[in-house]
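Q: What does the assembly look like in three dimensions?
Context provided by user:
Components: two
Sequences:
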Amino acid sequence: MWRWLHPYAKPEATYNLLQKLLPWFVALTLVTLITGVIWGLAFAPGDYQQGDSYRIIFLHVPAAIFSMGAYMGMAIMGGIALIWQIKTAEWAIPAIAPVGAALTVVALLTGAIWGKPMWGTWWVWDARLTSELILLFLYVGVMALYFAFDDARTGAKAAAILSLVGVINLPIIHFSVEWWNTLHQGATITKFERPSIAASMLIPLLICLAGFAFLTVSLVMMRLKNEILRHELHRPWAQQRLEQD
Amino acid sequence: MAFDSFTDFVAMGGYGLYVWLSFFLSFVVLAGVALETLLAKRQLVKKSRQLQQRQQRLARRTANRAAVGDGNEPKT
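A: Here is the predicted structure of the complete assembly.
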């Protein structure tokens, strides 16, 4: 496996791989996201308690899950950057952080807008909401730390350490609805028993989940391509690539 | 189809404002990230062109200096 992975430590090889894969991921994103959103908005049945307001779930849950998924990915890249000093892994940090932060903002916004009609309030300082807000601050902190040093590699190292420390927040977010009494409802699909949601709602939700997964990966790939080019701009291959596409 | 008419679909059972607002804001945020990424790419193309021009200018100047001479060549 190492023999297969090792060439990708070279930025040019990673760039070429991203270039090859990106169109497929963008296509998959568009297909799944459009299908999922239309299905969720127009074809899934209304909820017997929440009426049609529950349709926000088709954005809220995928955004929340991948706000955490993106963080995990960023922390893994931070670990790789610290242990093996691979530059491409360092550049993945500023590629992932804004995408993760955007997903966190979407989760918080949709949550607030869903909370208003269902809970009667936009915001409460309960465990789930607060820990998700801390996730946003962690993303902002990682980005700020990354760009806070004149030497890019020092910044990357500092950001990598913060991203690894921040992993502690992920189980806190996930289990917050079990550990504390919160206004937020418990897990619906990410639990070991059967999901407590009807198939007619679960299927479009799963499609939306796939759509957000592809969207996250596509955006990260686009940004990582930019990061690679930004650092390799003085090299002929990068200049040629920029002229080509 | 979960709705009888288009008006019903827009109204979302009275929750239209919340549902459409959340979908609209999510789209704005995520499209914003995508747009920023594309603009950054365009900025990189511009920067790369500038860098290439500078490299060419530098190369030309070195070539000129070698051809015309700057008074420092060894005397024949």
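Follow-up: The interface with chain B takes residues 37, 41-46, 51-53, 55-56, 59-60, 63, 98-99, 102-103, 105-106, 109-110, 113-114, 116-117, 215, 219, 222-223, 225-226, 229-230, 233-234, 238-239, 242-243 of chain A (CB under 8 Å).
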